[in-house]
Amino acid sequence: MSNSLKGRLLAATAAAALSLTAIEAAAQATSPDQIIGVWEAENGNIKLEMFDAGGSYAARMLYGKQLMEADGTTFKKDTLNPDPALRGRSLEGIVFVSNLTWDARDRRWEDGNFYSGMTGRTMSVQAELVGEKMQVRAYMGAPLLGQTIVFRRVP
Description:
The protein is of the alpha+beta class. Helices cover 16% and strands 39% of the residues. It is globular.
């Protein structure tokens, strides 16, 4: 293969990579309200509704496979809640993500709280749109130590 052909192939590959990067960047969030809507985890185990909570964003639980009783339709009670007064409430519709704030520079929602009805613990959370998907990362301490769940928008 000639040097000129190698150079053209390399230039074409670089141009394609730059185009893909530009497309991905354009597909990321440009407005804080883009997070609003109903989302379902890729594995189908969680369905939530993200909403504007007046100065921040939050999510309420619509469905959670691990939060359901054996009948598959009744939500479990919030028995592990650190507040004894809340232990009798249903996990259905609880606001489990709160205080997410839009960071325009990083183009993501940060500094939120994530309440796990499975453990009764509250963690930090951030969310980001990547293409058509929302990545939600819950963590204790540093984001690197967390877990990400990928969601797709439900029409």
